[in-house]
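Many introductory courses stop at the sequence. We go one step further.
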Amino acid sequence: MPTPGFSPDMLDGEGVPIWITELASDDPNHAVHVVRDLEPADALEALGAKPRLFRPCELPRSKPDEWTSLPAAALGAESGAGATLLAGRIGAWTFVYDAAGYTVDVDDTTALSANGRVAATSMFSINADASLTYAVDGKELAWINVDDLDLAEDLPGMPAELRAAFEAAGTVEHDYLDPGEPDYDICMRAVCALAGLYCTVEDLRRIPLLVTPFG
């Protein structure tokens, strides 16, 4: 399980950064956005959320059921009732966790990256579709589909910052996967490595967070 950027306690048994696992429902269909030099409220607004609905968030200690994410529980949202977005900032980078995968269009990533910023989005669907979009200054520079990813061939052609993120993400192999089968969680590790999100849910509880319904 060579993942140079992550110590073993930072990942769950599948290789997902554990803070994402702890936010997610048990069968996630979700996305993580990261953007440099943009405040959380501005990032939420860039994704189309309505500022009047933003509220400070204190993450609860547990989820009411297996279908509800921790941000949705904080909002008091019923499972299946639209999306919940959670945003916070650690250092120069803001993250937005989309608990229902409503904001996974390339336009969402490019909107975050407008005005010279760097942004990336990692998504994972209930059908195990997994990808990462990387954009700079309003333009998509890379889209990685895990099913087609070949690190040996693809790393040299990536933008330097993104290449370093995938190198830090490393690879995770599981006994139940056939040799050569995709590592479906590499993009979640890469987006965290890009933004330096080597954190826990307890770390998130120590910073200001915003939560909002969406969709």
